[in-house]
Write a structure and sequence with these properties.
- The protein has about 220 residues and is an alpha+beta fold.
- The chain has 7 helices and 10 strands.
- The strands form 3 sheets. It has a 6-stranded mixed β-sheet with strand order 1-10-9-8-4-7. It has a two-stranded antiparallel ribbon with strand order 2-3.
- Helix 3 packs across helix 4 and helix 3 crosses helix 6.
- The longest helix has 18 residues, at about 30-50.
């Protein structure tokens, strides 16, 4: 085992041993976001110099939901609960030597274009091995996207000392009920694994539903509701 693999193993086992992990699930209808992306991807690339992917809406929705449900962005410190008024999101990236989690800083102040640019920057550094300790230090919440490998559903493990992690998965066409009619829609399962010592089901489900609302209806970002 490499030193990085050993460290990853230690941290994953420590997360299992030191937290009360529980996972809740929901599903997102990706039709509206897919249509928006297809319509504006060329203009977005021309203006901002980066492609419009699905990560930026999810990251932005997560930041907004974390501000509305601050307990999911908090952490246990001894006998205290520490709340953070900022959102630093660790993004799980597959690097040549193993999984790394570079951090997007102050996501609550970032646009979709800002998020896409920073994801590209951190992803490039992960691939060429130039990530620094500072790039990966901290983080108040994590997002992992197994969908890039074709995952249908999973239960992600918390990136300690954080209190929760969001798992994205593959987008697959499925029959769903829409206004009493069965339609084929591009659907994604999403999962939130959280530390039940700190976060109860009400906060976890409320958070995940809010992420779903924002991603499923991206116009909400425009009217900020």
């Amino acid at each position: 085992m490499t030193r990085l693999r050993k460290r990853i193993s230690q941290r994953l086992k420590e997360a299992q041993d030191s937290t009360a992990m529980l996972t809740t699930f929901n599903e997102v209808d990706m039709r509206a976001l897919s249509e928006l992306r297809n319509e504006y991807k060329d203009a977005f690339l021309k203006k901002h110099g980066v492609k419009l992917g699905f990560m930026s809406p999810f990251v932005a929705a997560t930041a907004k939901a974390l501000q509305e449900v601050p307990l999911v962005n908090a952490v246990i410190d001894g006998d205290d609960i520490v709340y953070r008024d900022y959102v630093d999101i660790s993004i799980a990236v597959s690097a040549p030597k193993g999984l790394v989690t570079p951090v997007l800083r102050n996501v609550q102040n970032m646009s979709w274009a800002d998020i896409e640019r920073e994801i590209v920057n951190l992803g490039t550094k992960a691939k060429d091995g130039s990530l620094t300790v500072e790039d990966m230090a901290g983080g108040t919440f994590s997002i992992t996207n197994g969908g890039v490998f074709g995952s249908l559903l999973s239960t992600p493990i918390i990136n300690i000392p954080q209190s929760a992690i969001l798992g994205m998965h593959g987008i697959f066409p499925r029959p769903v009920a829409v206004k009493g009619q069965v339609e084929i829609r591009p659907m994604m399962y999403i999962a939130l694994t959280y530390d039940h010592r700190l976060i109860d089901g009400r906060e976890a489900v409320t958070f995940l539903k809010r992420v779903k609302e924002l991603v499923q209806d991206p116009q909400r970002f425009l009217v900020e509701c």
